[in-house]
Design brief:
The complex is a heterotrimer of chains A (387), B (404) and C (292). Chain A has 387 residues and is of the alpha/beta class. Chain A has 14 helices and 16 strands. A seven-stranded mixed β-sheet of chain A has the order 3-2-4-5-7-6-13, sandwiched between helices. Chain A has a six-stranded mixed β-sheet with strand order 10-12-11-14-15-16, with helices on both faces. In chain A, α3 packs parallel to α5. In chain C, 39% of the residues lie in helices and 16% in strands. Chain C is built from 13 helices and ten strands. Classes of the chains: A alpha/beta (387), B alpha/beta (404), C alpha/beta (292). Chains A and C meet through α3, α5 and β9 of A and β1, β3, α4 and α6 of C.
Chain lengths: 387, 404, 292
Amino acid sequence: MKKIVTGNEAAALAAKLARVQMVSAYPITPQTVIVENLADIIGRGELKAKYMPVESEHSAMASCIGASMVGARAFTASSSQGLAYMHEMLHYAAGARVPVVMVNCNRALTPPWNLYCDHTDSLAQRDTGWVQYYCADVQDVLDAILIAYGVAEQALLPVMINLEGFYLTHTSEVLDVPDQKTVDIFLPPYRPSNKLDVDDPKTFGNVCGTDLFSSIKYKRHCDTLSLERLWDQTAAKFHRHFNRLHSVVEAYQTEDADVCIIGIGTATGAMRLAVDRLRKEGLKAGSLRLAMIRPFPIEGFKKAVINAGHVIVIDRDVSFGAEGIVAQEVKAALFDRHGEVKLTGFIAGVGGNDISVETIVPLVRQAISGDGTAVAAGTTLWAEVLP
Amino acid sequence: MQLKKPIESLSELPTMPSTIDTMAWNQTGDWRYLTPLVANKLAPCSQNCPAGIPISEYLSAVRKGHIQNGLMLLLGRNPLPGLTGRLCYHPCQTRCVRRRIDRAISVQKIERFLADLGTEVKTEKSEKIDKQVVVIGSGPLGLSCAFYLGCRGCRVVVLDPCDQAGGALVNLLPKKIEPEVLANEISRLIRLADIKLETGAVIDFDTPGELLSKTDLIILDPTGLSEDFSAPASAVAFNPFDDETVTGDILLVKLPQNLKPFKAPMIAHYIAAGRLTAQKAFDCLVMRSGQQGLAQSDLDLPRQAVNMEDIKIERFLVSGLAAEAEAKQEETWDRERALREVERCLSCGTCNLCLQCVSFCPDASIQPDEDKAAVTIDLDHCKGCGICAYECPRGVITMEEIST
Amino acid sequence: MNEHAQKKRDLFTPGHFGCPGCGATLAMRQTLSVLGEDTIVAMPAGCWSTLIGIYPYTCLTVPVISVAFGSTAAMAAGIKAGLSIQGNDHTTVLAWAGDGGTFDIGLQALSGAAERNDDILFICYDNEAYMNTGIQRSSATPAGGWTTTTPDSALKGQKKKNMVEIMAAHRIPYAATASIGAPEDLNSKLKKAKNIKGSRFIHLFASCPTGWRHAPELSVEVARQAIKSRVFPLYEVSDGDVWHLSPMPEKVDVDTYLKHQGRFKKMLASDHQHFQKQVDDDWQRLLNKCRP
């Protein structure tokens, strides 16, 4: 069944189709529609779930973890300030190995106040151990949430599905809504073997000495690394049911590209259009969308043909005092070829600025112009700043 | 001590950080400086009892419904409870701690009730010692002495020149003591100790019969005997309350002034004197026999008196069992009345499994032991905090420096 | 099913790291003996989450989760919601937090859960300071009480926060004070609370020999003296509205309570009349609220 919906509406629909049993809701722009829709869906009995209007995002994550620890499928959503508020609990969820799925609506962090799209909020959480996926369009939102539950419950790790504030949360597109029956086959109920259970009493997460701590973290790290493959497998399964494929990396015309533009989120659509234009203008350009940032999809990244001599990364975020976070990640992934590849990082689109073809093409030109300003190693170029 | 179950490989590590076993392997007992010692102590009533009867212990047994056990505990220090239960001046009641709440326990009434119940139980006789003792005089001292020697395995014959047994007690018949009661008490004593009693005996030291000449020891209690009965010249005077060892073959019991002449209310003193005499006589006989390995009676081991400061009146769980009217002297109680009174006993110095110590232990390291009828300490885990000792309202637990 | 569940098991086993005479461990032991094995416990950072045992071992044989410090009530509420949606409305979800995790950092989540009337039993075991981290003051520390962050040179001036009043203001079905020094009262309150649906709060006084500087054998006695002196009176509030005094022994002066504890040494020497007056005033205020 096809509908025209916004990214937020798609997220709420996905939670319903996934038959989540617990929704913790704290409102924050631009996520509010998700929790509003779910209140109504649950209130009308379309979804059998507990709806908890919590008093803070920290409690939102805490209550999801609690519910998940007794075997219930839990869901919540947040953004920027709220995500930052629950930072402690993000570490906790990943450490506790609970398969919570959270939608994060990327929004700038204050001060000063800005409600618009910016990736710093979620990228700043990349070390918490959550899987991070960046949606490109409305269909991607719904599909990724369903895949996320499959992955999370198998790996016992939480997943963050990121939607860009306003560009995706509030933008309408055509959505192919899967039928519940097929979703139920793809995603069976959550039945953990290890949980808080009065018939099998254990203590979870108490003080651990130096003897075992490293091993516990090591095991978690290995499990997190293996998620790239697990996501692909689950996505392949999804494809068999729904005939749509979601890869952790999406390459566009990179096989023979001299220049490769790399990014995350909706801007990757504009990047593909920019590639088309640049090719018309005679430049062999290609683009790569990283759908997953954590774990870093190193296998997919390497497999995507990147023979380009020049890589341009567009970051909608910055790690202050260093550079764009995606640029950092890409640099690390390209380390083997660091003698052969030039990398230019751009900070663009922060605080809601648009990244269109008109933004990207001049950036690319600037990067490869060789006039000394663009390609100095370690330099990050910012768009849209005062002179 | 439970062993620690280790995790030794990654595959054994649970994915979620959940535990696999308890902390029982952790010997927190190593933390202790002081160790709680659970030991029943003599209650104030027992401390004041001339016969040293373990009053709180036998009341505790009765309270639990083990009435025969209670009676046996009583008989172990007082083989004539039906008599003391009528005659004794009950100094136990004077010191009863319950006085400070409402009224002293009517110990004597309970003693009387138990005595009159009777028992079919046979005492456990010690291993037989091949010794013969003749006790002359069947008053409370003589009977008591004979009883304890008999329980120790000696062959005992009690001789009394009178036609009726009982010594000076005979003078109290029939008003102060019913003849039936006296007869029952004596016959039970004889049966339990497996001894013989001959009244109307002819006792002639100048021409001793077979019994007197073949016996290993003669004990002579002159208290109830008539004035014209004379002890033989070879008799050695012996005060049971002194710290003397027995010498000679004929003991003439010589009591302190306050016990002469026979005073019925002091009956418990005579019974005690009999027991002490028996104890010393037995030790002497053992030595003379050369028999190895005969154990000292644990009845005689001195027990520590409870520290009055450790009895915490306000902490007794007294659930309003108010005293009923003062009982009349002649009254004999029925089972129901006696058991009601037993409920009022605070069990000073004796563990009655009130379990306050158990409920207050932060380490679950003190538990009731029904077999021992007391609590026991888990020495592997007890940290020696002292709460159990402090909270015990009856002073059973003390903190000691013990190297374990 | 692990071996602990198979037979009627001891829910509290020895070998834990609690200090000798620890009132908090006594509190948990008494609580679990009433709540029974159909209980899940969420406990935050504090004495309990450290003394419970070292991973992978634990001294409790009910399911327990060690939660982040400020999140206890929310975590517990989530557990309850997760159980409920799966059809289990009988398991007691016990939020077990110290005074720090209740009065201070845990207050927001607790207020949220109480406002929603989430079906959890929240028990604060109160040893009147951040004891686990080394005796620092909390808003539960009484005025004049020594701690490392309110040393003798700067004793705490503020009075102890009244948590039960705060919880009563949320109009939850049941809020009460209880103490390890009054075990029968604690037992009856636990039984009562267990059978009520909705948010229930018990403020449980738990002596601390280490932090309060008293002899370890006096842990229960000190708690008793706190009740007798009315420093910690026993009462209940139903629906935030009906205040009811619990049975209490005869009143004594505060120095009966203060004299056992090294943390009040300076106060006892200089200012205990002021403290006596505060206690008397608070006691009168409570009496005025209570129905006969």
